[in-house]
Structure formats: structure tokens, C-alpha cells
Task: inverse folding
């Protein structure tokens, strides 16, 4: 059985092209998934544009997300026809990924989709949405409630940020959305943001301790943005850190952690346990309806992925791309 996929090659030079491949070339695994929808994340864009050291094995099928139905399974946990999503686990980095009509994965990787979600909704949210849900779960497990005060979301027009704003707003939190795209204020207000703040307020070096005005934060940027967020969180608050779009550095001091008792919660979406993954998807299905996703997604085909990746890296994208494998 052959299938189409977005193939990345580096010999004799780097190329990203739609190719027809054979099922026999897929890696080992107990579950074969017929992928109907995938998506593009920032990491995918880096790989497709060859703009960062993402790809660790060549040639490689791109895509860290895959959503579809089980084609066949050697595991009793999955039956043909089950709607599933696979996020992370090295897909699109060291293992053939989800920008393909077929993926084969170990039985511990897929997550059964909670109703009313199908593959389209799973791709519309993808690793970005699932990561946002992990952040919100971490903040709520820490004990944050809407009565504690506003929660900051940095990089709010991106995939993770957009979903985090929506999830927090649906839970009743006052959300302060940080963006470098001031023209997208209406978009963020539509997701439920109470305030829209310019990214420039957070990108310059700041004092180790600043005015306490936040109950917590979801940070997708890292560097000075994360340091400034920590410096503004109230006593015993928390920050969920999940991204490094601004940088891997953290130019901060221990002051917020030992003088105000705030917690810095690291969020790993790539190798999270099956239980944490299922909890994240259950949270998404409980708070975000399929109708909510219509305003934050654009549908493209495999052939359009390289151009879309370039747009993501250039900061020209608001919301999410869904890749329809049948388009």
C-alpha cells in the first residue's frame, strides 16, 4: 500500500517535497493509523524550512501531529475505526511523522479522542492545543482559581497562546494576552482576553521583583518575557513555561521564588504520560467546542505546507493551520 507524505531529504541538498512512499518503509509499531488531518507547529515550520536543528534522521517525513482513525492494530487497546490523535514522541524529528496519509506507532502513543472531537478538531488543536491544556491543568493543580487574579498568556496569537487564552477564559479567569501583533487585539478579545498588552512591555530586561499583579502565567516565549512574568506574579502564584520563541535563556534571579514563593512549572508535551495526555484532551473537549475552532484555523493541503511554514517563521500567522491529507 502506498501513501503520500511530506518528505524531507538532505542529499544532495535539502528538499521538502510531497512524495509517494510505501507502507513497508514505515517504522515499527503495533498501531497503523490512517491519517486524515495534521497540522503545522512552530517546530514543524523549522524542520520544513530547514531553519533549525530539528531533524535528527534522514530522510524524514515531517509532522509532529497525526489525527485519523485506526487502520489496523495488534494491540487490544485499539480497534480499526477508533478515532485517535498522536502528538510528539519524536515524530517529525527522529521518527517519521504525521504529515502523511499513514503512520505506524507503538500502542502507548495514540490517544482516543473524547467526544465530540474527531480528527479535524484534534488537528485544529494539535500539539499546540494539547500543550496549552497541560499548562492550564498545571496551573489549576497548583491551586489557581479565577478569584486569585489575572493570568498572563505570552505569545497569545500563536497556537499555544490562542488555546490557552480560550481555556482560561472559559474557566472564568481574567486573561491578559501579550502579543507583538497589536492589530490582532480583536481576535484575542474574541477568544476571551480581558486585556491585550504589547509584547514590548515584557521583552526588555526588568527588575527582579516587580509589582505583584498576576495570579499566574502561561509563557511560550522564554528569555526576558518569562523573567518579567515571574517578577510580576503574586505571592504563591505559578508560571507554566512551555516555549522558547524568544530564547532559551532565563535572565532572572531567585528572588520571585524565595521571597514570594512562586512556582515555575515546566511543561513537557513530547514525552508526557498517557494519563496526562488523556486528561489534557478531555479538558480541551470539555471547554472548547468544534464550533469554537472555526475562527482560529485555516485548512491547507500537503503541497501548501512549505509556504505556510515560511509564514509561521516570519510571524505572519494568527491561529492554526489544519492540513487536510485529502486536499
Result:
Amino acid at each position: 500500500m502506498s501513501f503520500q507524505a511530506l518528505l524531507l531529504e538532505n542529499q544532495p541538498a535539502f528538499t521538502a517535497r510531497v512524495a509517494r512512499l510505501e507502507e513497508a518503509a514505515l517504522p515499527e509499531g503495533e498501531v497503523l493509523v490512517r491519517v486524515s488531518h495534521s497540522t503545522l507547529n512552530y517546530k514543524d515550520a523549522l524542520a520544513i524550512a530547514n531553519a533549525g536543528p530539528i531533524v535528527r534522521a534522514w530522510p524524514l517525513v515531517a509532522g509532529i501531529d497525526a489525527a485519523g482513525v485506526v487502520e489496523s492494530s495488534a494491540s487490544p487497546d485499539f480497534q480499526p475505526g477508533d478515532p485517535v490523535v498522536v502528538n510528539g514522541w519524536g515524530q517529525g524529528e527522529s521518527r517519521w511523522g504525521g504529515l502523511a496519509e499513514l503512520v505506524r506507532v507503538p500502542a502507548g502513543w495514540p490517544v482516543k479522542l473524547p467526544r465530540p472531537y474527531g480528527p479535524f478538531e484534534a488537528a485544529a488543536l494539535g500539539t499546540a492545543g494539547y500543550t496549552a491544556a497541560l499548562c492550564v491543568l498545571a496551573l489549576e493543580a497548583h491551586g489557581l482559581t479565577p478569584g486569585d487574579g489575572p493570568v498572563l498568556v505570552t505569545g497569545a496569537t500563536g497556537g499555544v497562546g490562542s488555546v490557552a487564552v480560550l481555556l482560561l477564559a472559559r474557566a472564568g479567569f481574567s486573561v491578559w494576552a501579550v502579543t507583538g501583533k497589536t492589530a490582532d487585539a480583536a481576535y484575542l478579545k474574541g477568544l476571551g482576553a480581558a486585556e491585550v498588552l504589547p509584547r514590548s512591555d515584557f521583552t526588555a530586561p526588568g527588575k527582579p521583583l516587580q509589582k505583584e499583579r498576576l495570579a499566574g502565567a502561561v509563557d511560550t516565549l522564554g528569555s526576558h518575557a518569562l523573567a518579567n512574568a515571574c517578577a510580576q506574579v503574586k505571592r504563591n502564584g505559578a508560571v507554566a513555561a512551555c516555549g522558547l520563541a524568544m530564547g532559551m535563556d532565563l535572565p532572572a534571579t531567585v528572588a520571585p521564588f524565595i521571597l514570594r514563593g512562586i512556582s515555575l512549572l515546566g511543561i513537557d508535551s513530547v514525552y508526557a504520560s498517557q494519563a496526562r495526555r488523556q486528561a489534557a484532551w478531555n479538558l480541551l473537549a470539555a471547554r472548547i467546542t468544534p464550533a469554537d475552532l472555526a475562527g482560529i484555523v485555516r485548512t491547507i493541503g500537503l503541497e501548501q505546507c512549505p509556504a505556510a511554514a515560511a509564514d509561521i517563521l516570519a510571524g505572519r500567522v494568527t491561529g492554526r493551520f489544519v492540513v487536510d491529507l485529502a486536499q
Remarks:
- The chain has two domains: 2-116+291-324, 128-266.
- The first strand starts at residue 2 and ends at 9.
- The chain has nine helices and 16 strands.
- Residues 2-116+291-324 form a domain with the Quinone Oxidoreductase; Chain A, domain 1 fold (CATH 3.90.180.10).
